[in-house]
Sequence to fold (378 residues):
Amino acid sequence: MSGPALYLALEIDGDGAHPAAWRRAAHSPDQLLTPRRVSRVAAVAENAGFTLITLDDGVLPPGASPDPVGRIGAVERAAFVAASTSTVGIAPVVPVTYAEPFHVSSQLASLDHISAGRAGWVVTEEEQPEAARAWGRPAVDGADARARESRDGVEVARALWDSWEDDAVIRSVATSRYLDRERLHYIDFTGDTYAVKGPAIVPRPPQGQLVVLGRPDRVPAAQLDVALVGGRDLTSVTAAAADAGTPRVFAEVEVALDTPDATAAERVADLERHAPWSDRGKLRHIGSADQLVSLLTELSRHVDGVRLHPLVLDEDLPVLSGLVVPALSARRLVTRPLPGTSLRSTLGLERPANRFAAAAAAAAAVTAKATATQEGVR
Fold:
């Protein structure tokens, strides 16, 4: 734990965590894929004081008929939201099971530039074999193979973000020099299934390295800044958090809250008539705002933050922003992100040094020491 703050992340993909959430949404289904919809939800989350919003994604459409199955790419939505917000962190879900890590790293670095250092990356996997066909690639079979692709993808992306040193861009009109080629580096990565040489085509992100979130059982803890841990009860979540081995740990929590029009249980029962709310191994709260505040207060003793998955965004987000977040603020458990602050700074994470610049500095120090020793002998 880094201090008293409990960082709050909110998943805002679609209409909510339940596959039939659209049936209780405050808009018609054709409005789901409009820019106004995603910007409105992001604005509510930012104004409420959430630390971070995430946007789920995958190459296959979400859900199944008769539910709406459309979705705009998470990176594209994140870029749009970045231009209309100023403090909230923005982390798209981007699987690298089949996607090219070189392209993913470029997209995410660009997002960090657009958002002025507020970008993150939620690493997940494409588990369904249909995803391989959509990409036109051989299927990656088995959990170990998918974990390998995630591990290699994160390693490549992190190396590419460092392939430009911070001062590689010169922009000197007087000398007609705009780039210092000596500060660009090849990463020379060779994995089990592909190789990447580099360097990147986008300058180093403002944060140096984006905040990387993921499950520590699928991505090595050393590659993560934030572990996303599940568990169906507090004991399981606490154990998973203790074993995470990452700088920050967020618990995954699905929430269905009492509203002025219906209790949480009634709302869940109404949606269950159309489709089941599948058990994804996450802690689930169905009840009042006060009970959720008590649960999050208890969680704050074991984790650094939570990622909330509301049953129906249009119904649960007003309760979260109007009752839950203010109550947590009154208990001094949450703090609002400050304007002009990067996501890394908000989470209390240091901006990492560039690996190539650090290696060059270390080599120069060794050379200088050797030279001084030789002169002393003379």
Observations:
- The mean pLDDT is 92.
- The chain has eleven helices and 13 strands.
- The longest strand covers residues 248-257.
